[in-house]
Design goal:
heterodimer; A: about 270 residues; mainly alpha; 11 helices; globular; B: about 300 residues; MetI-like fold; two-stranded antiparallel sheet; 14 helices
């Protein structure tokens, strides 16, 4: 077993402290009784109560959830197809443009993407609402999905697929029965990534949402623009906890899957 | 035929919702502001056929772009965004590299946990992570309280609503984007190469300089682009943490569009920003393609 040098120990400790202390402070102060966010005045869960009585927040949360489920599902299908094209289709006309359109949205400043999509929706006369946010979110998150899935497809042993084809599968059957189960973890993490990107997005949603389709980040932003608010701390704590539970559960499952595979392989030998 | 279908569905989607919108932005950036809905002129009227198209074409001009050069605000905002994005990328590299290096040297059984700890903030809302710093950096915030209590300062520092706060915000929120590509490059590094270098008489420092750093190069490049390009157009961080003096082009674009409702100027601002970013974006894409090829 290797041991960490003092330099590495210090850099890891400081690095993770930097990443986590702000969030921990936020969580602690969501249980603060007072209105002032920086002065502790006793433990209380009253801001959580306030939050759940706030209709505007609940409505926005519902819109956000709907948009995230729809956009991440469509993005996963399109992104997986795009990954297939990138890794398997070989050379075709316009390939450079295609890969450009896959990688550019990953880094494109959100203000540009948001503005351009809004101008498109107005040019074709599409009313702004849930649909326009879904279209916008699908477009940028499918690129993330395709990057995640293609990194798995690259290491995939293509002879398995060829064997299925030789044994009489149609192309789609080979994909469904052989390829999909193997790349499934990447497809699922692609979906989760698309889902959180959609939950999180403020800028693109601000451009593409209509008056009746305010999402949670838009609500949070207009609340915190003016200053710190204990209700937002409570909301943030809930969101951070949900993500933490999700990520920890996912990493435990994958750890167990790896351990199981290692055991199976050992038994096979 | 099937291959054609597979290619054309995502291709057409991206053409319609990624490329065409940019052409519309370009078109509107060449139009004039008008008190109408939509608030620009001329609009293309398809029903008038060729004559209508010619009339529309003659209505376009580069007035908005000359406007950008006459008002100091715009070029100052571009320069200031460039400066902020460059410095934050360097800072993120200085903070992120030691973390990625430490992770790659950690015992094998720690790595999944460390990896999870880096990814967790990335999954957490960006907006919330920026907001968390508001309570820390303010006049009566935690940082000032801490420094006052240990006697390092005698009166509170003003950090919130300055450029310093913007740097902290960018480095903090984009750190996982810097750490992950560098870590994945360092993780593949074969340690026997370092031992060989040391056996051949390299000091540890020069082994790091001559072996580790070149092998981590692609990760460093990818991480730097992933921070620099989005930081250039950042809106949320300067809006929440920066002050009235913080000039960033993303904020200017937002205000032109939402406050001044000047769509043609907002579009022109976007076009120029895109022209500045086109080189880094193409380099980023080349770097990613190269890595994907190498992974095969």
């Amino acid at each position: 077993m290797r041991r960490l040098s003092w330099f590495n120990t210090v850099s890891l400790t400081l690095g993770f402290a930097f990443l986590y202390i702000p969030m921990i402070i936020l969580i602690i102060y969501s249980f603060n009784g007072g209105k002032l966010v920086t002065v502790w005045s006793g433990f209380s869960t009253k801001w959580y109560g306030e939050l759940f009585r706030n209709e505007a927040f609940l409505d926005a949360a519902w819109v956000t959830l709907k948009v995230a489920v729809m956009s991440s599902t469509v993005a996963t299908v399109l992104g997986t197809m795009a990954a297939y094209v990138m890794v398997r289709a070989g050379r075709f006309h316009g390939r450079t443009l295609f890969s450009g359109m896959i990688y550019a949205p990953l880094v494109m400043p959100e203000v540009i993407t948001g503005l351009s999509l809004l101008l498109l929706f107005i040019a074709i006369g599409l009313d702004r609402g849930v649909l326009t946010i879904v279209l916008a979110h699908t477009t940028f998150s499918m690129c993330y999905v395709s990057v995640v899935v293609s990194s798995r497809l690259v290491t995939f042993d293509q002879s398995l697929e060829e064997a299925a084809l030789d044994l009489g599968c149609t192309g789609f059957e080979a994909f469904r029965l052989v390829t999909l189960p193997i790349i499934a973890p990447a497809v699922i993490s692609g979906w989760l990534l698309a889902f959180t990107l959609s939950l999180d997005d403020l800028v693109i949603a601000s451009f593409t949402s209509g008056p009746s389709s305010t999402t949670l980040p838009i609500k949070i932003f207009s609340a915190v623009r003016l200053g710190v608010s204990p209700e937002i701390n409570a909301l943030s704590t809930i969101m951070i906890s949900l993500v933490a539970i999700g990520v920890i559960a996912a990493s435990l499952t994958s750890k167990r899957a790896i351990a199981k595979r290692a055991k199976d392989e050992q038994e096979a030998i | 035929m099937k291959r054609f279908g597979l290619i054309s569905v995502p291709y057409l989607w991206l053409l319609a919702l990624f490329l065409v919108p940019f052409l519309i932005v370009l078109k509107i950036s060449l139009s004039d502001t008008a008190l109408a809905i939509p608030p620009y002129t001329p609009t293309l009227d398809m029903s008038e056929g060729w004559a209508g198209f010619k009339e529309w074409l003659s209505g376009l001009d580069i007035e908005n772009f000359t406007w950008l050069t006459t008002d100091d605000l715009y070029w100052k905002a571009y320069l200031s965004s460039l400066k902020i994005a460059t410095f934050s990328t360097i800072l993120a590299l200085l903070v992120g590299f030691p973390i990625a290096y430490g992770m790659s040297r950690a015992p094998d059984e720690w790595r999944p946990t460390l990896m999870m700890l880096i990814i967790l903030p990335f999954w957490t809302s960006f907006l919330i992570r920026v907001y968390a710093w508001k309570a820390i950096l303010s006049q009566e915030g935690f940082l000032n309280q801490l420094l006052l209590n240990i006697g390092l300062i005698s009166e509170p520092l003003t950090i919130l609503n300055t450029n310093t706060a913007v740097y902290i915000g960018i480095v903090y929120t984009y750190l996982p984007f810097m750490v992950l590509p560098i870590y994945s490059a360092l993780e593949r590094l074969d340690e026997s190469l370092l031992e060989a270098a040391e056996d051949l008489g390299c000091s540890r420092l020069s082994a790091f300089w001559l072996v580790t750093l070149p092998l981590a190069k692609q990760g460093i490049i990818a991480g730097s682009f992933l921070v620099f390009i989005p930081a250039m157009g950042e809106f949320v961080i300067p809006e929440l943490l920066g002050g009235s003096k913080t000039l960033m082009i993303g904020k200017v674009l937002w205000e032109e569009f939402f406050s001044n409702r000047d769509w043609p100027v907002a579009s022109a601002v976007a076009v120029v920003l895109l022209l500045i970013l086109i080189v880094p974006i193409v380099l980023f894409q080349k770097n990613e393609e190269k890595q994907r090829e190498a992974g095969k």
